[in-house]
Structures are given as structure tokens and as C-alpha cells.
Design brief:
Layout lengths: L13 H15 L1 H5 L4 H20 L5 E6 L5 E5 L8 E2 L4 E2 H7 L23 H6 L1 E10 L2 E8 L2 E2 L4 E5 L6 E8 L11 H14 L4 E6 L6 E5 L4 H8 L11 E7 L2 E9 L5 E7 L2 E2 L5 H20 L12 H5 L2 E9 L4 E2 L5 E2 L2 H21 L1 H35 L19 E6 L1 H10 L5 E6 L11 H6 L1 H10 L16 E5 L4 H17 L1 H5 L3 E4 L4 E5 L2 E5 L2 H11 L5 E5 L8 H9 L5 E5 L6 H12 L3 H10 L4 E5 L1
Parallel strand pairs: 1-10, 14-16, 19-20, 19-21, 21-22
Antiparallel strand pairs: 1-2, 2-9, 3-4, 5-6, 5-9, 6-7, 6-8, 10-11, 12-13, 13-16, 14-15, 17-18, 22-26, 23-24, 23-25, 26-27
The protein binds 3-[3-(1H-pyrrolo[2,3-b]pyridin-5-yl)phenyl]propanoic acid.
The site of 3-[3-(1H-pyrrolo[2,3-b]pyridin-5-yl)phenyl]propanoic acid has 12 residues, from helix 3.
């Protein structure tokens, strides 16, 4: 079975052959083990190793984890846990350390209850990381001695040996690995990506200190340590919003083998920002823990509001969504054997989690509301306002529904639709301003390109309730043009255009309008973004003319490059475009709309970072000035380049 990568040295027994087959399977299908071989998979290697150390922290033996991006883009993770066992594993006939690093799924299955919890594929990935690294070295500090073993592409170079001595009080594990460039499309680590994930891990593991250092030229360093755990997570998520009350509501308990933690704080926005986790892994599709939480929340607030005469007997109950309006919450459960369900395995299935979260939250939230009547009152009042707004929105929506039924789904008057009726071929440009809209209508390829001009700034949906949103003309025009409906009516199969292209001026106002558009799409039709239908057009920043030749530059670097090539002298006239309106129809077509020549940026959502995305939108759209400035500096983050 030997291949190029796994030449078997002499005297390999059946055990070893199995191990090599295991590791070879990992190299053949890396995606099955770490999701992908893109930048995301590259970063997953770090999470696999860190998660092992976090498991040691959850077991109560590790307080510090240090992650370093080394100068050569290798990674070092050191923890101060008990150290991976180095003694002989009887069954395998070799050191337990070697088993952990060479046998697929070895983690947690040895050491007699060493691991209490472990998340699905997580916490067992040391051998996977090893198989996908050109070089890996692990050191274990125990009782004054340093044990070590090194590997190449997962294959041990020698036995586990003592390689030196250390302070007898020192204990822990240190791993350094070099991701294999033959496996990964990208081998340069992104500091901010690791920073965000490690911060989240620290929030979810209260008391644990995680340090991140970048030893490459920029020398960044951050430390994350939250004694309050998810309580501080909620404060952090609400950092650019106005909290409705100062306390963070916190519930914690153990039931039926499920450890439950919940933190809640309402703010002045209208969105539900609830994030659920199982064993520190985010569950974007929720599951039993989330439904237990929602049930407890709805029941407890209705009981309280009725008991305190805030809702009369004859009045309807609050719905869950009323209570969740403007609520930030974290649900974190730890379970020994989590079962993940759904197509993407992102939904918790364990039924005991539903009951555990429901009963712990019901009991402790009831107590909290009794002890904090002022907080209880402010949440109930906000929920009652939400209930009224919901009723008004329903009426507004029923009205438009009835209208469209009568009028046969008439398209907005300002829309210049395309003639091709197959959505696969079609795209719609949402254009800022009537004048640019006019040029775009002249320029477009009539068969496949539709144009919808919008007047001025569109409504900021972060700051408006549903009834107002449904009444807004620009928003109604977009909803009818796209054809999908929104929220619970949303149906992507009705989408009338394969590409929705936002085309705004290349200036601050244009960026603001794009963000308002994206906010609307993210809040009301997130699947359009998730499924990759939303793009940003890239108009050029400069036009360069010389001797009747014309060049366009889309960035300052490109301008420099063009000028260098054609020679900078008195004969070129450089024009800086301030807006789309400065281009005539032909120029707009050539530079921005022609599918053969244009550049589009596709807007993407990183599901694993959804809590950060939510903050991004509220930061930009919220009232506080300082966080907004920071965002604008960083704003390329959620937009990925796509050249067409
Ligand atoms: C099982 C048992 C023991 C330690 C560990 C696991 C352990 C695993 C990892 C993975 C990364 N860091 C770790 N630190 C500890 C206890 C071993 C003993 O008491 O000798």
C-alpha cells in the first residue's frame, strides 16, 4: 500500500499499515476532515489543536493557551495542561502520545475519562493536522522532563524520547506544525481570522486565557481572558448598541448530563442576535438547545406579564419574536456525546438538551424577573411595542399581498426589465440615483440586464420597525423586482435574476449606500447572499488618456502601474471619476457593466463568524460614531474578490 508519501520502512506491522492507511485517507480527502483546503481549512488546523487544549481546560487542568504564528507561517500552540500522556499504551504497544498523533480519531478514547466533552470532529484532530503537515513536533512537559516526538507528513521520525529537562513544576503540551503547501491552496495565516475565533473560544470557556502572537513582521499580540465568560460575550456583542438595562441576565446549571449556560441582554435595535453553541462549536441552525431556550423565554415572560397585569386576560399572548426583538443572547451547552443533525450537521439533536435548557432557564429567569422588576418591566414594555408593530406590519403586508393579487404582481414602474425570462441568464443592477440609472439603461445589454434606479439613500432597516420598512417605496420596488418575497414568504426558487449587482459611486456616499443595501439584504433575504447571488460592481477610479488611447484604473496601485507602463508626461490627462454620473453610457458599459470586461465583487457570509457579521452591520448603522470609523477602515473583510 505504500505510496510516494508513505514509503514504509522495514518491519512495519499490521498496526502501522492501518495507521498509514488512515493518514493517507486524510491526505486523499482533506475536505472530509477539515472542511476544505482553502484558507478556511488552513485555519481549521489551528482550531483542531487549540480545541484539544480547550478540552483539557474544560476538564479543569489548563489555564493558559498560547498560539503563535511563526515567521515561516508555521503555528505553535502551547498549553499548561497535564501534558498528553506519554506512557505506553498497552493496546497499541507504543506511547499514547504517538497514538494521539498518528491514529485517526484517537483523542478522548484513552486516558480514562480525560476528556469530559468533545465536539463532533473537534478535539480529535491531532492526527489529522499531523497528516496535513510537512513537519510537526510535539513536546510534553511532565515532572521535570521534556518528552518529544517529530513527524514528517504524519510519519514519526523516531520514538517518543526524553530530549531535555525543565522546571519540575512546568506541565503542558507544545505543538509546532507546518501546513503542507501541496495540500493547501493558501499557506499564509491571517491574524484577524485567528484572533476572532480565539476570542470567541475564550468567551465560551470562562477563566481560560488565550494569547495570540504574530511573530511575522507586524508583531501583533492579543490576550483574551474573560472571567465572566458568555456574560462578557453578550456585553461585547452589544458594544456598539444601547443596552436596555445594565445587567446581563445569566443562567447556569447542570441537568441530565447537560451543562447549560445562557446570557441575555436587550438593546435598542430590532434584531434577534441569538447564537447557540455546543461544546464551544457554533450551531448556525440551532437545534434542541435553542428550542428549549425559546420555549422557556416565551413562557416565562408571558407568565410574568400576565401575573403583573401588563397583559390583560382578554389580550393575546406575546409571541417569542416579540420578546426576542432587540435581544442579544448566547446559549452554550456542554454535552458528552453531542449528536449533530441536518444536512450540514450544524444542528443539535440531543433531546435531553431541550429539557435541560428549558427547565434551567425557566426557573432562573423567573427568579431573576422577580428580583429585578425594573428590568422585567422594560423588557415587557419593549415586547408589547414589538407586538403592536408586528400587528401593524401584518396589516401593511396583507394590504400589499391583496394588492399584488389584484394587480397580478405588477413590477415597479422604474424598473427597466430585461427581455430574457430565464433567471439563469439575467442580472439586475441596483443603481444609485436617477441620472446614473439613465446611463445604465442606455448602456445595458437589454436581453439579460435589468436596471432598477433607486432615489438617494435607501431606508436604514437597522433603525426602522417592520411596518415602516414594508411601506418604503424603494424597498418595495426591490422586493417586487427580485420576486422572492421576504422573511417567511421568502422563496429563492422565485428569484428573477441570477445576479443582483449593486452599482454605486466609488466614494464614501456610494459605500454607505452599498452598506444600506447589504444590510437590507442580509436582514431580509440572507439566503441571496449565502447562495452567492449578491455582487458589488466596481466602477473605475481613474481614466487615463494618452494619444487617443484610453486606460481605466480600478485602484491607485493600478493607476501607478499604468502610468509606469505608458510613461508619465505632459501628454496624459488623468481624470478621476467621482461618480457614475460622470461616465457616459458607453464608458459605463465598457468599464463596469460589460460581462466580458468588468470586475465584480461577490459578497459572502462566513457562517462561522456570524456573530461578528451582526456586529458589523449594527456598528455601521448604529448611533455610536467611534465604532463606525473603525469599521470603515476594515470594511473589505466581508467582501471577497471575484474576477469575471
Ligand atoms: C488525557 C489525559 C491526560 C491529559 C490529556 C488527555 C491531555 C491532552 C491534551 C491535548 C492537548 N493538550 C493536552 N493536555 C492534556 C492526563 C495525563 C496524565 O495525567 O498523565
Amino acid at each position: 500500500m505504500a505510496t510516494e508519501n508513505f514509503e514504509t520502512p522495514n518491519e512495519y506491522g499490521a498496526d502501522q499499515i492501518q495507521i498509514l492507511e488512515g493518514l493517507e485517507a486524510v491526505r486523499k480527502r482533506p475536505g472530509m476532515y477539515i472542511g476544505s483546503t482553502s484558507a478556511r481549512g488552513l485555519h481549521h488546523l489551528v482550531y483542531e489543536i487549540v480545541d484539544n487544549a480547550v478540552d483539557e481546560a474544560l476538564a479543569g487542568f489548563c489555564e493558559n493557551i498560547e498560539v503563535t504564528i511563526n515567521e515561516d507561517n508555521s503555528i505553535t500552540v502551547e498549553d499548561d495542561g497535564r501534558g498528553i500522556p506519554v506512557g505506553m499504551n498497552q493496546k497499541a504497544g507504543k506511547s499514547a502520545l504517538e497514538v494521539v498523533y498518528t491514529v485517526l480519531h484517537a483523542g478522548g478514547k484513552f486516558g480514562g475519562g480525560g476528556y469530559k466533552v468533545s465536539g463532533g470532529l473537534h478535539g480529535v484532530g491531532a492526527s489529522v493536522v499531523n497528516a496535513l503537515s510537512t513537519d510537526l513536533t510535539v513536546e510534553v512537559y511532565k515532572e521535570g522532563e521534556i518528552y518529544s516526538q517529530s513527524y514528517k507528513i504524519g510519519k514519526p521520525l523516531d520514538e517518543v524520547k526524553v530530549v531535555g529537562t525543565c522546571d519540575p513544576n512546568k506541565h503542558g503540551t507544545k505543538v509546532t506544525f507546518h501546513p503542507d503547501p501541496e495540500i493547501f491552496e493558501e499557506t499564509v495565516y491571517d491574524y484577524d481570522t485567528l484572533k476572532q475565533r480565539l476570542r470567541e473560544t475564550a468567551f465560551l470557556t470562562k477563566g481560560l486565557r488565550i494569547a495570540l502572537t504574530d511573530a511575522r513582521e507586524n508583531h501583533h499580540h492579543h490576550e483574551f481572558h474573560y472571567a465572566g465568560g458568555i456574560k462578557e460575550f453578550v456585553t461585547y456583542l452589544n458594544r456598539s448598541k444601547e443596552p436596555l438595562y445594565s445587567d446581563v441576565i445569566y443562567c447556569e446549571g447542570n441537568r441530565d448530563g447537560v451543562y447549560v449556560e445562557v446570557a441575555i441582554q436587550h438593546n435598542d435595535s430590532y434584531n434577534d442576535a441569538t447564537y447557540s453553541f455546543v461544546n464551544n462549536i457554533i450551531t448556525p441552525e440551532g437545534g434542541t438547545h435553542l428550542s428549549g431556550f425559546r420555549n422557556a423565554l416565551t413562557k416565562t415572560f408571558n407568565t410574568y406579564a400576565r401575573a403583573n397585569k401588563m397583559i390583560k386576560d382578554t389580550e393575546p399572548a406575546l409571541l417569542g419574536e416579540d420578546i426576542r426583538e432587540g435581544m442579544t443572547a448566547i446559549i452554550s451547552v456542554k454535552i458528552e456525546e453531542p449528536q449533530f443533525e441536518g444536512q450540514t450537521k450544524q444542528k443539535l439533536g440531543n433531546s435531553e438538551a431541550r429539557g435541560a435548557v428549558d427547565s434551567i432557564v425557566s426557573e432562573q429567569l423567573t427568579y431573576f424577573l422577580e428580583q429585578n422588576p425594573a428590568v422585567a418591566k422594560s423588557i415587557c414594555e419593549k415586547s408589547l411595542l414589538a407586538q403592536r408593530a408586528r400587528e401593524a406590519a401584518r396589516k401593511a403586508r396583507d394590504l400589499t399581498r391583496r394588492k399584488t393579487a389584484l394587480e397580478g404582481m405588477s413590477l415597479p414602474g422604474k424598473l427597466a426589465d430585461c427581455s430574457d425570462k430565464d433567471p439563469k441568464n439575467c442580472e439586475i443592477f441596483i443603481v444609485e440615483g436617477d441620472s446614473a440609472g439613465g446611463s445604465a439603461k442606455t448602456a445595458r445589454s437589454r436581453a439579460t440586464q435589468a436596471i432598477l434606479p433607486l432615489r438617494g439613500k435607501i431606508l436604514n432597516v437597522e433603525k426602522a420597525r417592520l411596518d415602516k420598512i414594508y411601506g418604503n417605496a424603494e424597498i418595495k420596488a426591490m422586493i417586487t423586482a427580485f420576486g422572492t418575497g421576504i422573511h417567511e414568504d421568502f422563496d429563492i426558487s422565485k428569484l428573477r435574476y441570477n445576479k443582483i449587482i449593486i452599482m454605486t459611486d466609488a466614494d464614501v456616499d456610494g459605500a454607505h449606500i452599498s452598506t444600506l443595501m447589504l444590510t437590507f439584504l442580509y436582514r431580509f433575504m440572507p439566503d441571496l447572499i449565502k447562495e452567492g447571488h449578491v455582487y458589488l460592481a466596481q466602477p473605475p477610479l481613474y481614466k487615463i488618456e494618452k494619444n487617443k488611447n484610453v486606460w481605466y484604473a480600478y485602484s491607485d496601485e493600478e493607476l501607478g502601474k499604468i502610468l509606469k507602463e505608458i510613461g508619465r508626461d505632459g501628454n496624459n490627462k488623468i481624470q478621476r471619476y467621482k461618480g457614475l454620473g460622470e461616465m457616459d453610457a458607453e464608458q459605463l458599459w465598457e468599464t463596469t457593466m460589460d460581462p466580458e470586461k468588468r470586475i465584480l465583487k461577490r459578497v459572502m457570509i462566513d457562517e462561522e463568524n456570524s456573530s461578528e457579521i451582526d456586529v458589523t452591520f449594527t456598528t455601521l448603522m448604529g448611533d455610536k460614531v467611534e465604532p463606525r470609523r473603525e469599521f470603515i477602515e476594515e470594511n473589505a473583510k466581508y467582501v471577497q474578490n471575484l474576477d469575471i
